[in-house]
Design a protein that fits this description.
The protein is an alpha/beta fold and 702 residues long. The protein is built from 28 helices and 28 strands. Helix 19 packs parallel to helix 20.
């Protein structure tokens, strides 16, 4: 509440050439309680000067851009003509270089369009009026007033370098909570320094010293200052020195601004709105739709692809600079009045006001990705990123800002799942799918604790002897309510949530234990191997070889009986060198390595040369298509020939027919697995399978 204005009606003059901004300011003023406002609007320079000369208002709001004219020129001319009414400048998000110039020209404060809330507008008006009253009290000293007018914002200070005494305005003292008695004795510069946070003190003194020496044109420092209640608040001090004819400073005066409010609402790295302020803007826009049912707007949720990789590999300093550059590019892609916020990490949100239809939003999304994909030069590194973007339109079903943001977030995840570097528009089916996925994720977290997972084992057959040489362990989930859940449904969720790490460790432990148990039950089968899949995330664990070694020693299984399968896409990524090191460590243990789904990626040949692979697993798509055309047969022949020349074995997956088996035998493929031989078997069924494939066991125990 603006108590200093009492119940009086406060008259405001707005100089603004955009009618939409006039309507927005009017709406904001109507939301401020405790004070009545009369808002007069003029849209051009001449009308503004005429209104100012009438001196009928208590506060002026000047837009920095007035068509062909400059709002700063209007400010300077008004002050030159004797204007004593406080002026608040309105600047665009891309015009922040005008902020300091406006303050030096005599503005009481400045507000950034698109980031103005009712509370922020009220605060700015209150401080502008208080500043004006303070300056009136200082008019007994013309020099002091001139200095304060250049450097003031909230609390004013005026330091006499000769006596080391400082004049602190009432507002300055009130900011740090001084009592009336303390205010009387607070007049020395050292008292100020003693309240600055120790971590900020040296930086503050260095910046002040540089200005007094003439190295910098003005003094400006952001720091923490101790309040009388013991807490620290963030403040910004600006100042200008007065010098003798030979350039020696003898006085410096300026302002101290309380940044506590700003730091609550703005992201400190990029300067953009934060989540709190963005939600406030969304609430205000939703209110507008109640007055204007046809008003259409969109929320864009953006997540930077590959940011984590860049941040982890090049360091957080490079990551921070990248986020700053992303913020700048986003601002350039938007119209004046659109809002962009950093929600945290590498996530950004955008509010597109007053659009015609969805195409306006999709065009912005397309423009954003085209701009973000251009290279970034950061501290000697050239990096590339893209963005996964979700778009949500306002609708009658969405009356809460959190719901709109959630919908855009859901659409963003769909874009990421479909390949990244793209946008998706939210529809209601996405929400249902997101809820189902969340429920699945929750159940997945409980499944390990409740022992709901089990393994099935599919035999792998030697095509030269037609006997089994081992098994591939395949994880299954038996949900208490939903029954058997396909790995195709839960493995991607496990990978996205990181649950694949404990799940993969459990699979490896159980598979090794089971194979050792069969070997002890059937000593003649001690040469059988167990194949276990490793996920991409498991390969990023530096201690993976150590984990495998401990499991082998704990279960007693020989390392030569374990075959770990890795996928091509799991190897050829940004951590390729790390994966090569980890696989080399695993190979030293004596474990066999297979390359799964060979031929389906873009770098198959590179995989063979870069990693210590023992076996190629021929993807089922090649096996299934051998009979369709001779060229498919030729592809399989080429792969088998290549592998043999490198001393690598080939195992064909997905063999389902006798004809496929015959073709693979003609090509001299080493091994195969698939439903033609056996479906994946439960542990108890494996015993029967071993007996059928090793008749000598039956004879021995008959």
């Amino acid at each position: 509440m603006m108590s200093n204005t009492g119940s009086q009606q406060l008259r405001i003059l707005l100089v603004e050439d955009d009618e939409d901004d006039f309507i927005l300011l009017k709406d904001l003023l109507s939301d401020i309680e405790g004070t009545e406002f009369t808002l007069e609007w003029v849209s051009n320079y001449a009308a503004a000067l005429e209104a100012v000369q009438k001196n009928q208002h208590e506060i002026y709001l000047f837009d920095c851009c007035l068509g062909e004219y400059n709002g700063l020129e209007l400010l300077r001319e008004a002050i030159a003509n004797g204007c004593k009414v406080p002026v608040i400048m309105l600047t665009g998000q891309g015009e922040r270089e005008n902020d300091l110039e406006a303050m030096q020209a005599g503005a009481a404060d400045y507000l950034v369009k698109g980031e103005i809330s009712a509370s922020l507008l009220e605060r700015s008006i209150r401080y502008a009026i208080n500043r004006s009253q303070t300056l009136d009290a200082l008019r007994e000293s013309e020099e002091r007033y001139a200095l304060a007018a250049q450097g003031s914002n909230d609390g004013l200070w005026d330091w006499n370098l000769a006596t080391n005494e400082v004049y602190f305005s009432e507002r300055w003292k009130a900011t740090i909570g001084l009592s009336d008695r303390e205010k009387e004795n607070f007049k020395h510069f050292n008292q100020w320094l003693q309240r600055i946070h120790p971590e900020d003190l040296e930086r503050f003194k260095t910046k002040l010293r540089d200005h007094l020496k003439g190295i910098t044109p003005y003094f400006e420092s952001e720091y923490r200052i101790r309040h009388c209640n013991g807490t620290y608040l963030w403040a910004l001090s600006r100042g200008l020195a007065v010098r003798t004819a030979n350039g020696r400073p003898y006085r410096i005066a300026g302002s101290q601004t309380d940044l506590s409010h700003h730091r609550v609402l703005y992201d400190q790295l990029t300067g953009l709105s934060n989540r709190t302020l963005f939600i406030d803007h969304l609430e205000r826009t939703l209110k507008r739709t109640k007055r204007q049912p046809d008003y259409l707007f969109a929320v864009i949720f953006l997540d930077c692809d590959r940011f984590k990789i860049i941040n982890d590999s090049l360091g957080h300093l490079v990551g921070d600079r990248l986020l700053i550059q992303v913020a700048k590019r986003l601002l350039k892609c938007l119209r004046p009045g659109d809002i962009v916020a950093r929600l945290g990490g590498d996530e950004f949100a955008i509010l597109l006001e007053n659009i015609r239809d969805i195409s306006d939003a999709t065009q912005v999304a397309q423009r954003i990705n085209e701009d973000l994909m251009k290279p970034y030069s950061l501290m000697g590194h050239l990096v590339y990123i893209s963005a996964s973007i979700g778009i949500a339109l306002n609708s009658q079903n969405c009356q809460k800002p959190e719901d709109l943001l959630r919908n855009a977030d859901t659409a963003m995840y769909r874009a990421k799942a479909l390949g990244k570097a793209r946008y998706e528009v939210f529809d209601t089916t996405m929400h249902a799918q997101a809820q189902a996925r969340l429920q699945l994720e929750t159940s997945l977290r409980q499944a390990l604790e409740r022992s709901e997972f089990h393994l099935n084992y599919q035999p792998i057959i030697s095509l030269s002897t037609n006997k089994g040489i081992g098994f591939e362990a395949l994880v299954r989930w038996r949900h208490p309510d939903r029954g058997i859940i396909s790995p195709a449904d839960f493995i991607p969720v496990a990978e996205e949530t990181g649950l694949i790490i404990p799940l993969g460790q459990w699979v490896l432990q159980e598979a090794c234990r089971q194979m050792k148990a069969w070997q002890e039950q059937f000593p003649i089968c001690r040469s059988l191997t167990m194949s276990v899949n490793l996920s991409r995330q498991q390969l990023s664990q530096p201690d993976l070889a150590g984990q495998i070694d401990r499991i082998l020693k704990g279960t007693g299984l020989s390392a030569s009986c374990l075959n770990l399968e890795v996928t091509e896409t799991g190897l050829m990524n940004e951590h390729e060198e790390t994966a090569a090191t980890i696989l080399a460590e695993i190979k030293e243990l004596g474990v066999q390595l297979s390359l799964d789904d060979f031929g389906t990626g873009y770098s198959s040949l590179s995989c063979i040369h870069s990693f210590p692979i023992d076996t190629l697993k021929l993807d089922r798509s090649f096996v299934n298509n051998m009979h369709i055309a001779s060229k498919n047969m030729d592809i399989v022949r080429a792969i088998v020939t290549l592998a043999r020349s490198l001393g690598i074995k080939v195992t064909a997956e997905g063999v389902e027919t006798a004809k496929q088996l015959a073709q693979l035998q003609i090509l001299k493929c080493d091994c195969a697995q698939g439903y033609f031989f056996s479906k994946p078997l439960a542990p108890e069924a494996v015993t029967d399978w071993i007996a059928r494939n090793f008749p000598e066991i039956v004879r021995k125990f008959a």
